[in-house]
Amino acid sequence: MTTETYVPESSALERASNGFGPGQMVPPKLVALLQAALAGLLLWLAFPDTGHWPLGLVGVGLLWWAFTIRPRAGWNALIGFIAGLLFFGPLLWFTAVATALVPWIAVTLLQAAFFAVLGLLWTWTNNANWWRANPWTQALGFAVLFTGVEQWRSLIPFGGLPWGRLAWSVAGAPPGRVAWFGGSVLVTFVLTLAATLLFAPLRIALEHFLLDIRGTPTVTYYAPARLPTASVIPAVSPVVESVVPDNSVSPSSMSQLTSKRVRDEATKPWAYRPWPRVAIGLGAALILLLAPLLLPLPRVAGVTTVAPPRVAEVSASEGVDRSRSVDAGVSVAEAGVLHVGIAQGNVVGRGQEADVNANAVFQDHLAATRQLAADIAARRATGGSTATPPELDLVIWPENAAAWDPTVQPVVANALDAATADVGAPILVGTMEYPDYGGRYNVSLLWESGVGVTSRYAKRLPVPFGEYIPLRSFARLFTDQVDRLTVDMIAADNPPVIVMHSDRLGREIMLGIGICFEVAYDPIFYDAARLGAEFLVIPTNNASFGDTAQSTQQLQMTRLQAITTGRAAIQISTMGVSGVVTPDGQLVAATDLWTQDRISALIPLRTTLTPAVHLGMVPAYLFAGFALVLPVIGLVVGRLTKDNRMPVIVAGSEASVPEYPSSPVV
Fold first, then answer.
1. pLDDT digits over 526-565, tens only?
2. Rounded to two decimals, what is the model's pTM?
3. Domains in the chain, please, with CATH?
4. Residues in CB range of 277: below 8 A, 6 or more apart
């Protein structure tokens, strides 16, 4: 027979929870909506500034659970969209602070749409019975889809927005170490797999528990189906779970299935009883989360770490002697140690005219550099050593610390010459270039006293709608904020490295570089490491984002990129947060927001390429492809085989066993 296909109104969990009053039941749609909203909020709380990363696992698990309550494509798209709104809305609030409400709403809606796509694809994938057959395939399938969709939004549109990737939340936790092996994409996969390995069997166990205490005869199912007819089946066991074939169910065939189930349950209880499966899922999840501790990352020893700073607190530099150089992992150096100073000048005079503020920012960074020179003098006074010389090899300024191009502004060039001579080292300075053919480049220039620019990197991935406006005429229909950006930034085509010569080491040194938001884009740092970069630098300007958590979120990304490449990393901001990271992701120094500060650090130079660098973007493209293939397989297999079998839990003295439709839902 052919029947209309739809998703049933409730599952065993909702039916068994019918205990809020006589004949009352929590509507399953409301349950799913509340779970989706909670999932989104928990995902947000996993990221800085709160930074409780285990909440991200709970959020992923609840999102999967919400998708199973009423597994219909359109409904699950709505569920995913709501979760996305509650996640990306607060996470990306810094865009509203930097611009206005309309751009924030637009980027939030766009990113939430990817979560809607996730719900749609997950429903289609489950049309194939072998994905929904047991909790283990559920966990694997959902982890693949979640990771793949995350890669999609990291690549499209306009180059994608990798902000909010689940991997960024665990930079300082054991799962973050997986980045050494497979990059951030594999970290996300491990996290989502661990979450669903726990929640999938837990959901079934909770259904069993509620059914036991309520004694309610019911049926639970995971596939879209209409249940129009029923046969009364005598219960062979207090709780029987089986796989029912398509619409040829009869009392005799059901009795045969359940009798076999009871026999199997007697010989293999671990395979069918719910709580052993919960224990197996918990054990597998713990292994996934803790096993990365065994990965052979560079074993940094003898360093003093600091707690990740929070924008609401002022403590990162309190009581710290900045004349003392921090150890960023000297014990794992492979090609020597570079003594590097970073200068955070601060941004004052917010709201002043652009030229006035730009000059103040430049002068503040000159002042921070003079403080580095004073630190050198203090180290000399206490006596240096051959291993840790008091002099600096390099000073790093943040993005746009010099708003005027020193190659065309003699006043700026003269000031940089004086600063480099004062500190006795070249300065990597962030500035803007305005070519004759229009537009502008966001550049970092290596400046040497009396020589000028000796190496240059221009940003390859400018931020759409932040540093350039695609579809400007169309975007103007929604907000006049597009006119605040009068000159579009040009995407450069150059390798992400800066080359400097070290007289002390007697050779050229290559450092990898990604400017500001480029820290979120893995290919930048894969390319840098392959080209020979020995440590990483991320110059950034966070002044537009005010007191939001944007800079602390960015520092998490810097830490994970350090693990991914096996390189020490430096994030240097105009006004905070800046930080120094060891090759295994430990934070050894940090600054506060809205302060003038500086740090001297001993940076280990490393040349070994990690497995993640060797693999490059291959894992990302594979997961992105699987996220497209699995739903197609689910739809095709479901239609060709009319495979609509599903797990059924029978409880109580008798239960309704449904007849199933002949075609799956699209």
1. 999 999 999 999 999 999 998 999 999 999 999 999 999 9
2. 0.87
3. 12-233+242-293+617-658 (no CATH), 326-382+390-592 (3.60.110.10)
4. 135, 201, 204, 205, 270
